Amino acid sequence: MPGLGTSFGRGGATTAQQDLQFSDAILIMGSSMAENHPVGFQWVIEAREKGAKVIHVDPRFNRTSAMADYWLPLRAGSDIIFLGALINYVLRNEKYFREYVVHYTNASTILREDFQDTEDLGGLFSGFDAEAASYSPETWLYEGAPVRQPRKGKHAGHSDVVGGHGKDRGGEAGDIGEHKNDPTLMHPRCVFQVLKKHFARYSAELVERSCGIPQEKFLQVAEAYTSASGPDKTGAICYAVGWTQHSTGVQIIRAAAILQLLLGNIGRPGGGILALRGHATIQGSTDIPTLYDILPGYLPMPFFESDSKKLSEYIEKHSSKTGWWSNFDKYIVSLLKAWYGEAAIRENEFGFNYLPRVTGDHSHFGYWLDMADGKLHGLFVMGQNPAVGAPNARLERRALSKLKWLVVRDLVETETASFWKDSPEIQRGEMKPQEIATEVFFLPAAGHAEKAGSYTNTQRLMQFREKAVDPPGDCRGETWFMYHLGRRLKARAESEQTTRNAALNALTWDYRTGGQHGEPVVEEIVAEINGYTAADRTLVPGYKELKNDGSTACGCWIYSGVMPKKGENKARKREPQGRYGHGWGYAWPSDRRILYNRSSARPDGKPWSERKKLVWWDEDKKEWTGFDTPDFTKTKPPDYQPEKGAKGDDALAGDAPFIMHPDGVGWLWVSSGLKDGPLPTHYEPLESVTANPLYPSHAISPVADKKERADNAYAHPGDKRFPYILSTYRLTEHHTAGGMSRTLPHLAELQPELFAEISPQLAIELGIENGKYMVLTTPRGIIELRALVTERIKTLKIDGRHVHQIFVPYHFGYKGRAVGDVPNDLLAISEEPNVRIMETKALVCNAKPGRLPRNKRSLAIWKQDLKRPA
Amino acid sequence: MTTTGFLTDSTLCIGCKACEVACKEWNQLPDDGYEWSGHSYDNTQALGHSTWRHVKFVEDTPEPAVGGNLGEQLPAWSFSSDVCKHCEVAGCLEACPTGAIVRMEFGAVFIQPDICNGCSYCVVSCPFGVVQRNEEDGRAFKCTFCSDRQRAGLKPACAQACPTESIRFGPLDELRDQAQDRLKKLAARGIEDAVIYDPTETSVEGIHALFLMRGDPRTYNLPQQPEVPTIYQKKGWTSAVIAAGSMLALALLSFLGESK
Amino acid sequence: MSHTGGRVPDYESERRLAELRQTASQTGRVEGKGVAVQGAPFPQASPADGYYGIPLLKEPQWKKEVPLYFFVGGAAGASAIIASSAGWLSADRDLVRKARWIAAAGSVLSAALLTKDLGVPSRFINMLRVFKPQSPMSMGAWTLTVFSASSVSAALANFLRAKELSAGPLILLENGSGMLAAASGLIMSSYTGVLIGATVVPVWNRHVGTLPMHFAASGLNSVVSILELMGHEDNRALNRLALAASAYEVAQGVAIESKRDRVNRPLQKGASGFIVRIGGLLSGPAPLALRIAYAVTGNKKLRRAAAVSSIAGSLLTRFGWMSAGKASAKDYALPLRPTYSKPEAPIKLHERQDRAIKTSA
Ligand SMILES: Nc1nc2c(c(=O)[nH]1)N[C@H]1C(S)=C(S)[C@@H](COP(=O)(O)OP(=O)(O)OC[C@H]3O[C@@H](n4cnc5c(=O)[nH]c(N)nc54)[C@H](O)[C@@H]3O)O[C@H]1N2
Ligand SMILES: Nc1nc2c(c(=O)[nH]1)N[C@H]1C(S)=C(S)[C@@H](COP(=O)(O)OP(=O)(O)OC[C@H]3O[C@@H](n4cnc5c(=O)[nH]c(N)nc54)[C@H](O)[C@@H]3O)O[C@H]1N2
Ligand code: SF4
Ligand code: SF4
Ligand code: SF4
Ligand code: SF4
Ligand code: SF4
Ligand SMILES: [Mo]
Predict the structure, then answer these.
(1) N or C end of chain A: smaller count of CB under 10 Å?
(2) Candidates B81, B83, B143: which one to mutate for ligand 7, based on the most atoms within 8 Å of Cβ?
(3) At what angle do helices C236-258 and C300-329 cross, to 10 degrees?
(4) Which CATH architecture best describes the domain C57-198?
(5) Is ipTM strictly over 0.90?
(6) Is there a single domain that holds both residue A234 and residue A205?
(7) Across B66-75, B167-176, B245-254, least confident range
(8) What distances in angstroms separate CA A64 from CA A41, A757, B19, B189, one per listed residue?
(9) Is the entire prediction scored with pTM above 0.90?
(10) Alpha carbon distance B56, B46 (integer Å)
(11) Does residue A443 surpass a pLDDT of 80?
């Protein structure tokens, strides 16, 4: 989550769901929290009952809107206009929390003279390289900051890391040098003034014209939210994939970060930005990543071109002189030590070169397109169901048929496992089972109650869970599978001592096993993640004890401290105390529930107000204290001033709460670390029914990757064939690709069939009756579904035109009890430039009443639709 | 033992259906089939032998929401989780010929499954359309008020699962007070159209599963004046007596003319 | 979910839609001539229509056994009364014998039908676990039990008497159990009206004050007719009884037809109304007219026809009421009214425009 990472320093929710009960206003946007995070939503209700205003901004009136004080419908894909207008409202009406802004953000920092804004260049920031379709971030730097020279053919600036999630660390800027500040915020090139200019055109009128929200309603809500902030009040923002799954997703979150920093809402009780994450341990799966471009703890994965063979250079490049990331070397060395053990010695740079290198786009879409082109031989699919869950699912399923072998480990036979016999491609005669050469292995997996392990939830809270029952039959847990697969691979590598096998041979893989099936002891893995001394394997009490000399090993530095002593697994604790429930599970880092909580106190260390106190300086004890673990060096006094040339955390003053950042403040302006600009700016979705009201010549993000090709085609701007906005969403009753819900009778009966929500106006226009079938088409595919006609969906007036939006829950597929066509057949593979996520929330489609035959005629119908005059 | 009850507060309900699913899981109930209704998000439609908690989805009742730039009509969506009312005077219990339906120590109306013989007379005696016979099994089923759980000192499964405390469980008299408090709180927030559904004025004499909702309870299929059918028996038996008397008299008179 | 059938959009309708969209996006409305606009209305919940018009009440789940039982039990009950009355007052021993047998056979058949309805034979026993006066079903079960025992023993005694065995105790037995059978028979033929009347089903409930008499008359009418067809077509007492019963049925029919409102609708309209009306015609006006004609002409065929008509009418009447009850329970609007069963409290409810959708496409 680089949106949060670059703004605040860590790529995780800044707050906890329980903390919402202390809010005075809650803005939920880009999420249907009541539907998708119902348990956490109780705290929103709690706040509402205490008098907080709950605002829901969502194109679709849903179960969350029903519980809100205000619902504002907006055109899907116009979020930055809305948020930009809120920022503009705050700046113009002096609604910002001045003292907070001056002390705790980079508002006063002065920028380079040669920076040019999108407002000056008609939609581009300075530094755009049209040929490479990417930016050089050099002109975005603080004035006076040293420029790092790139290694090969990349752009100058602080970071030229190719992946995305590395930026979750927010530490790219490294040495930002002796930058100049103007605490009066008057300097024309200070961040504050640049911000003002940048957002000046984001007006209430623009919101009305382009989002479809009446001006007065917008102003009413803007007032309600912004007036609930200040020394005595706080507001929180909750979002999820309604924001992230856009070609500008990261920048939408950036806009929220700017708003919250201006209002002084970060690090304070009832404030913050709550990134509502998805799957049970999706946070955990970025902390200890299943992603290709980062290593555990948000250390970047080395890249083939840019990261040399030398560990020292890699460290030099990715650490910073000031702020917490000055410890980078300790974390990477300890990680290498944990993985390669005895084989990781100073002489071989702790096995740095055992790590594979990233050679290109190995994200899901990168390798899936390679697969479609026949470049991949085999694939393991574990705990994923891309035949339903991935965009352009039709392409994805066809790509599976190009594999030699496919292993699916799942609880049920998913659509992915049975693509070769049940998919629409088979029904339509596009593929024949006898002609598909892919050998499919289906391995039964153990469910979550059938194995021990842990989840890291949406608020970075690690919770351990015991095994309740033994898995039936041949079902096995992931740890069992991965451990034994690794063991066998290692055994084979041992007999072939080649260079290629060196990493495998060096890898430590010595967990104890037990039980009937030789399950690895999970607590041993936790011990490794926590870290220990290399010499005698004594557990370290936390990441502060990690060393850069190879004397410590640690599998994921941010989790260090979860098992400080033998036999003490803090993730297993179930004794909640105090208002944040410390003692129940373990929140990284160091069990902090509210990040950056130093900012809940004034620069002098006293709480901003009695009502909003959280962490403060105890003058008698000379330490920080409060309701939460201070996110600050415990004994660093508020008036501490660094000496010139100080390094690391010592270089940060006693009033610098954003300790991960080299300058210790929250970033309204992100000088480096993002690929699409230092500030959010509005671009239309990759497919849109309207023109960009701000930048007519740069309708879409100039750096988003459309991956356009014949089997991943797009509607072009103004395409008459596809006059409606299409957006996809979730139902409470189902889970993601449906393997875990459409197969269960008690869930399947609740939403038994695929449908689309449409407005009565559209229903009349198309002659579609509630409950009858309709057909949707996009350049990627065609599906049939039922119509749910409802007043909850509003037709909007955008740029003087009536715009209809069609909403489709994406959970359906051809297996299980509740079945339907696959909505993701309609979507396109696309990549947001920073995190390479696809756009699922705003695209275009065509709709008509009727049914679709289950044979090749449906393809003919689709082709005919595509042939209509554009 | 104290009489326990539910207060199902629609103003807190988010329509997540966790109660419905928890009930089915705990009581091992079958599915109701996989039919898509087109009635908002409600595809299970009503209480019945296989659905003992049921969440209703009412679109378009008043809510202080703000609409789009075209529509004057503001959408709204209310959810209400329905359940057996465990009536103070229960039609089902009165009617049951076998004594299968009993009043539990905590006031619940409970069908003893080993005694029910499937006569289905309770089905036509419930003014709320709750109880139903399972045609395959032949017996009647409805919410047990989680009597098994209550006896073990646990909350009913539905209340336990509810994330927003929309289903409150506790001593009935306390819930009645809480319901009143809640009305006041809502009024303070400007919500004036909330009502408590608890038909104490009718022959049902009140229910143990209270409902709080906005607008007219009839929108949620709650009858305005539910009556226990027992009250109609007097009229019925009077008619039967007249019928018997007349028949006897007629028969005697007719044969008198034909005497031996 | 089935994936067959349905309309496949063709190019022509496509083109028209394109035009429609064009106008719609410009003007915000569609005025296309000849375009079937079917998008709205869509189902909504309201105080008048209740929850999307989904029935509030549960449909009675009785199947054909129950109305059949109502018929058989009603006839058997009335038969016991005839047997005893004739036993005391008439010399026609054959009539008494047949009446006793009908009562006995009917009582056994009744028990069988009820057991069939419950599904598992042993379940009938549970009916006798408790004696529960406030439950008409319980009262019915006990009545049936007493009635079966007494009518069967009366019939047996009668049979043994005919074999001229030691007459004394048998006479005592026949008369004793006969009286018990007659007494319980009186309840047998009328209680079913209470049983369905004292329920929440609107149309039954509305008629709770007359249903017992209606059913008693119907039972009497049918058993008299059966006896006539079994060879007692000259018996004047029977004819008188039948005349009275048919006359009552005429009055009942008039009463049902005269009140036209939503509660009574299932008795007048639809499949259930059709059965009720035919049943009513066959049990009231038709036999009455035939019997009068028989009285005038003395043509026995007419009397036989009247008997057949009454039996069929009585049978249809029970089926009619059962299906009327089912239709009535499906009426979503009635139970929403306050005291729908009281005709004196008329509530004007707007008729629901049929906004419900069909879920199968
Ligand atoms: N019951 C249930 N819970 C879940 C899941 C599930 O499948 N089922 N999935 C889990 C997972 S993996 C995730 S990632 C989370 C996701 O949680 P959410 O993000 O809440 O999920 P969605 O329903 O996909 O999208 C949220 C909302 O975004 C709105 N939306 C669409 N387009 C736009 C837009 O352009 N702007 C804005 N502001 N909003 C838009 C949609 O109308 C929708 O209401 O939920 C998690 N929780
Ligand atoms: N159109 C559209 N597409 C989307 C989205 C959207 O909003 N709109 N959302 C996207 C998002 S946020 C997400 S997270 C993805 C989700 O998409 P996927 O991850 O593809 O879908 P899931 O159904 O969650 O797949 C998880 C599978 O893991 C299995 N499983 C569960 N537990 C275990 C286990 O312990 N071991 C193993 N081996 N398997 C297990 C489940 O049965 C299930 O089949 O979909 C994405 N796709
Ligand atoms: S499914 Fe699990 S994570 Fe999601 S809301 Fe329910 S309890 Fe929370
Ligand atoms: S609601 Fe119906 S089933 Fe429940 S107790 Fe009352 S009468 Fe019985
Ligand atoms: S069906 Fe069962 S519970 Fe209902 S009345 Fe008959 S015996 Fe009682
Ligand atoms: S009390 Fe128990 S049986 Fe009744 S609805 Fe709740 S969970 Fe179901
Ligand atoms: S569990 Fe609670 S919030 Fe969810 S539907 Fe049931 S009553 Fe409503
Ligand atoms: Mo997700």
Answers:
(1) C
(2) B81
(3) 30
(4) Up-down Bundle (1.20)
(5) yes
(6) yes
(7) B66-75
(8) 9, 16, 18, 19
(9) yes
(10) 8
(11) yes
